[in-house]
Amino acid sequence: MELKQNECKRCGHVWIQRILTKPIRCPRCKTHLWDKERISTLKNEITKAKTYLSDPEKKESAKEVIDALEARLNDRVKGA
Ligand SMILES: [Zn+2]
Predict the structure, then answer these.
(1) 12, 59, 63, 64: most buried by Cβ count inside 10 Å?
(2) 35 C-alpha to center of ligand 1: Å?
């Protein structure tokens, strides 16, 4: 039997289920938007990542993180 691991992007709850269909809601916080990150969370993470741009040792990895976060933010803004 295949097991699927889900992670709630709102409360961080991780749960395993046996059926492979997408769960309707998070069993812990009951949100229907468990697989959608909050736009404000993404924006906060981008702001936080940008503080590392002034650190020469972390600059390159910070850029990658920011690019990835901005792509996710764009998806969310488009309603994906
Ligand atoms: Zn949750």
Answers:
(1) 63
(2) 9
Ligand 1 centroid distance, CA of 15 (Å): 10
pLDDT tens digits along 30-77: 999 999 989 999 999 999 999 999 999 999 999 999 999 999 999 888
Ranges of each domain in the chain: 1-36, 39-77
Residue 80: pLDDT band by 50, 70, 90 thresholds?
Answer: low
Kindly report each contact of residues 45-50 with a partner whose C-beta sits within 8 Å and lies 24 or more positions away, as own/partner: 45/69, 46/70, 46/73
Q: How remote is the CA of residue 12 from the centroid of ligand 1, in Å?
A: 6
Å from CA of 32 to ligand 1 middle: 9
